[in-house]
């Protein structure tokens, strides 16, 4: 069964990463596209700008952020399509979901990993 990892885009590339998918809406600061070693930038699956700004990476808001983000994934057709694509990429491939946030426990990549595994 393929592995799904979550990793900061600022962390070192590893052969074991498999497909590297950036799941942020905004390109990470200080990273050149050629250095990112991405297979895909799936910004459509990221939280909306409004939700991202509301969350502000406040761990106290994470549970509510998660609920609102999952609702976006179900209701927004563009996000739904992007999430389906992500699930398809996970079939038969090791996958690393990349994000830029400093908080390794409270970010959308963690939520996406759990949702992909459920599927």
UniProtKB/TrEMBL annotation:
Organism of this sequence: Lederbergia galactosidilytica
Family annotation (InterPro entries): YeaO-like
Name this polypeptide is given: DUF488 domain-containing protein
Superkingdom to which the source organism belongs: Bacteria
Pfam families for the chain: DUF488-N3i
């Amino acid at each position: 069964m393929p592995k799904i990892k979550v990793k900061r885009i600022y962390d070192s590339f590893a052969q074991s990463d498999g497909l590297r998918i950036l799941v942020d809406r905004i390109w990470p600061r200080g990273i050149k596209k050629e250095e990112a070693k991405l297979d895909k930038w799936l910004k459509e699956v990221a939280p909306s700008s409004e939700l991202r700004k509301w969350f502000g990476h406040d761990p106290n808001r994470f549970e509510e952020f998660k609920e609102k983000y999952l609702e976006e994934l179900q209701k927004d057709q563009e996000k739904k399509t992007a999430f389906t694509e992500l699930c398809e990429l996970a079939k038969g491939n090791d996958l690393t979901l990349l994000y830029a946030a400093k908080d390794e426990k409270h970010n959308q990549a963690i939520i996406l990993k759990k949702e992909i595994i459920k599927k």
